[in-house]
Amino acid sequence: MPELSGCIILYTRDSSHYPAFRARITALGGTTYHLPLMATVPQPLSAADRTILDSSDTLVFTSAAAVQHLLAQYRLCGQQTIAIGTATAAALPYPPNRCAPPPYNSEALLTDWQPHGARIALIAAPEGRQMLAETLSKNNTVRTIYPYRRTNPSTHYPSALPIPHIITIASQQTLDYLLAIVPQEKRKLLKCRTCIAAISERVAQYAEKQGFHTHIHAEKAGETEQIAAICRWWQTVESNSGATP
Q1: Which of 17, 81, 106, 109 gives 20 to 30 Å between its CA and that of 160?
Q2: Is there a contact between 160 and 186 (Cβ–Cβ < 8 Å)?
Q3: The CATH number fitting domain 8-38+152-242, selected from 3.40.50.10090, 1.20.1090.10, 3.40.50.170, 3.40.50.300
Q4: Residue 112 is inside which H or E element, if any?
Q5: 41-150 domain in CATH 1.10.8.60?
């Protein structure tokens, strides 16, 4: 029997990522639905932003979207580049000077990289990577540049959607966007019956704080690892459901 036979998964990343995810889950016997909960909108750089970028010796990119939206408006001029993960590194026009090691998150980067006296521009979305900025600011001059912002492309939770076994969540803000559009009664049901498959341990912990009874997380920040975690969890669920009381 396929690993995910009978499993219903609600996918919340944007449409560009969904077909590949759906194909992988379908091959494993699962069923997917799509509710995009995160989109990015460019924000114009100000003259002050450009001055900060020009005077920085290090640019820290927190996501592939950060790379794409900055480079659409600004030409790199010899700064050292740091990527938070492999997808972010791949979005750069040339390999970064440093990439966070597994599990490709802020904590891993800070363990691997402790600069002192650097002039750092952190390229992020508003409200993103605050811990990273605060930690780097202890020994460096850190300014954050916001070449884009995040929005929720879904205005409501479709009433026809079945209650999924799993909802994939890639960030704390994605979960906030979900909770903002789900009617209260269905929100209670999701928190009790649905497992949050988070991209990281930090996001899984946030899901717990928001009241979700069940949550899992990928060992590394990537969909391959996220799917592996889903498969492990579903096999456990199926084994327990078939156990003799």
Answers
A1: 17
A2: no
A3: 3.40.50.10090
A4: helix 106-112
A5: no
Q: Do the beta carbons of residue 148 and residue 125 sit within 8 Å?
A: yes
Q: Could you tell me whether strands 119-123 and 58-61 are parallel, antiparallel, or unpaired per DSSP bridges?
A: parallel
Distance CA 237, CA 231 (A): 10
Q: Give residue for tokens 């995040």.
A: 150
SS3 9: strand
Ordered by start, the domain boundaries in the chain are 8-38+152-242, 41-150
d(CA 128, CA 228): 26
pLDDT in tens, 89-143: 999 999 999 999 988 888 899 999 999 999 999 999 997 788 899 999 999 999 9
Mapping DSSP onto H, E and C, the string for 137-204 reads CCCCEEEEECCEEEECCCCCCCCCCCCCCEEEECCHHHHHHHHHHCCHHHHHHHHHHCEEEECCHHHH
The amino acid sitting at 165 is: H
